[in-house]
């Protein structure tokens, strides 16, 4: 058993952070002495490792608590998922470092660089970036079915998705409850159900995520500023009208 300061020194995080994790019920020490000292077991350290892996992948603390408190949570499966996602993240970071090095040489006049090469490594597709969050929110079965439907058809799916985004962006000045807006967002609902199974409640919840998560907002608003908020409102209205 380790005292809280020993855990903090071992891991490299602050005592205050560990206190916060305890207060929100994310990581509660297995033992507290009569004097009030928190004592952390080996199991606590394993849980802390999981928490820090999730944090490295930008998963919010509230979501981590929800994931790890599920009866079906399996540490080995979670570690395998962490490894896969971090490997993808490393590949992207390595590419971005190469882009920086190449850009520096270009600025010095040592090489030529195309506009396309200047953006190598940036990924705004959103699929890989949010796949784990989708699994956590709707389960592996829905995501695996979506992936199977998209496999071998990624180009066509991508083009169709972008067309829907562009159309929605062109009408984002309208009232989200208007007939035209509702017809357009209905197309988005239909598209999503080609690659998965989304209930009306899940559809409305996804719309909330478009605004609550800055990464979603940034990706969607590439098609037009304010599009994410417009889609959220339209999706919420669509779910309400069609229940």
Mind explaining what this structure looks like?
The protein has twelve helices and three strands. The protein has 243 residues and is mainly alpha-helical. A three-stranded antiparallel sheet has the order 1-3-2.
- Total DSSP E strands: 3
Based on CA atoms alone, the radius of gyration comes out at 22 Å
Beta fraction: under 5%
First and last CA, distance: 53 Å
Uncertain segments: 125-129
Which class of secondary structure composition applies to the elements? mainly alpha
Helix content: 55-70%
Counting copies of identical and different chains, the oligomeric state is single chain
How many helices in DSSP terms?
Answer: 12
Output mean pLDDT: 84
Shape: flat
Q: What labels would you give this structure?
A:
mainly alpha; three-stranded antiparallel beta sheet; 67% helix
Summed up:
The chain is mainly alpha-helical and 243 residues long.
Indicate the topology.
Layout: E1 2-3, H1 4-11, H2 15-23, E2 31-32, E3 38-40, H3 42-56, H4 61-68, H5 75-107, H6 127-138, H7 140-150, H8 154-170, H9 179-192, H10 200-212, H11 214-220, H12 227-241
Antiparallel strand pairs: 1-3, 2-3
């Amino acid at each position: 058993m380790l005292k809280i300061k020993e855990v903090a020194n071992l891991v490299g995080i602050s005592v205050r952070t560990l206190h916060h994790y305890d207060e929100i019920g994310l990581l509660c020490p297995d033992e507290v002495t009569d004097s009030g000292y928190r004592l952390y077991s080996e199991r606590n350290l394993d849980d802390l490792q999981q928490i820090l892996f999730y944090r490295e992948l930008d998963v919010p603390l509230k979501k981590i608590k929800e994931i790890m408190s599920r009866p079906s949570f399996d540490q080995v499966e979670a570690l395998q998922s962490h490894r896969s996602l971090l490997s993808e993240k490393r590949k992207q970071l390595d590419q971005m470092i190469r882009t920086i090095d190449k850009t520096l040489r270009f600025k010095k006049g040592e090489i030529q660089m195309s506009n396309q090469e200047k953006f190598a490594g940036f990924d705004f597709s959103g699929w890989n970036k949010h796949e784990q969050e989708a699994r956590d929110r709707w389960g592996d079965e829905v995501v695996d079915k979506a992936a199977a439907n998209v496999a071998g058809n990624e180009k066509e799916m991508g083009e169709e998705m972008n067309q829907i985004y562009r159309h929605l962006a062109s009408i984002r000045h309208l009232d989200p409850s208007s007939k035209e807006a509702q017809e357009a967002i209905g197309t988005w609902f239909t598209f999503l159900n080609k690659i998965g199974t989304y209930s009306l409640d899940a559809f409305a919840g996804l719309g909330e995520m478009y605004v609550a998560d800055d990464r979603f907002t940034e990706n969607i608003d590439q098609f037009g500023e304010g599009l994410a908020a417009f889609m959220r409102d339209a999706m919420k209205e669509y779910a309400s009208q069609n229940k």
